[in-house]
Amino acid sequence: MAINPFFGNFRNEQKLLDDLTIETIKAMGMDVYYIPREYVKYDQLFGEDILSKFQYAYPIEAYTSDVMRFGGQRDVISKFGIEITDRMTFQISITRFRTEVTSRSPEILKPREGDLIFFPLSRHLFEINYVEDENPFYQHGALTTYELTCELFTYSSEKIETGNTDIDVIVEERKMFLTKITLGTSNTGITAFAKGDLVYQVAGVTN
């Protein structure tokens, strides 16, 4: 028994499928920004970054699998307060990613967990949690898309300066609600504190 010789894993069919995938995403998707994470002080022992920054934003079109609403458990009230667990699933073309991202940053061969996706429609930053690169599974013997499972980004004093005003202003808006307290500095003039306010310790700041 053998497969039909007129339908196989031919290069022309793979190229046609890739072109159709790109055309579909461009027609039905929307523009997003891929923002790679750069490690400033990577902890080799625990495998985590103490401080990271984001300074590049690459525009690329993506198809959103969630068409009705954000995925995840949405807003959850726990003992730690309100937790927003909005999730999004994006599909982007492998060819387009190599053209828009890899060509400019050769070390980024594929989307990476920990990098960010800026979703202009809702002005949200999403962190990539998982990258699926085999779905659909080898149609005509080739892979055409990445499927990115993302969750709403939890800001933790990362430096975000991409040069894109729409992205950078998100961090600036957060700073409007922060007061920096340093060791040895008199804060007697501050009257904005109240019982129940939260104080966070971040890299380079003692409070």
Strand content: 25-35%
Largest β sheet strand count, sense and barrel closure: 6 strands, antiparallel, barrel
Count of helix runs = 3
H and E string: HEEEEEEHEEEEH
Strand order of the largest sheet: 1-4-6-9-8-7
Q: Rg to the nearest angstrom?
A: 21 Å
Q: What structural class do helix, strand and pairing data support?
A: alpha+beta
State the separation between the terminal residues, measured CA to CA.
74 Å
Give me the count of strands. 10
Helix content: 10-25%
Shape: elongated
Overall pLDDT, averaged? 80
**Which stretches of 5+ consecutive residues score pLDDT under 50?**
none
Quaternary structure of the protein: single chain
Describe the overall structure.
- This protein has 207 residues and is α+β, with helices and mostly antiparallel strands.
- It has helices at 11-28, 94-102, 165-175, and strands at residues 30-35, 38-43, 48-54, 58-64, 71-78, 81-93, 116-119, 124-132, 145-152, 159-160.
- The model has no long low-confidence stretch (mean pLDDT 80).
